[in-house]
Amino acid sequence: MMPGDLIAFFPGSYVRYYDLPGHAWRYTWLELRGARAQAALERAGLRPDSPLRRGALSAPLRAVLDEIEAAYGDDRYTPFFPVAATWRLLDLLSGRQQAERGGRMDPSLAAAVKRLIDLEFRHPLSVGQIARELGTTRTTVFRHFRQAYDQSPKQYLDELRLNHARVLLRGTRMGVKEIARASGFRDAHYFGRAFCARFGAAPTAWRMRMAAANVVSRK
Question: Domains in the chain, please, with CATH?
Answer without folding.
Answer: 6-150 (no CATH), 159-218 (1.10.10.60)
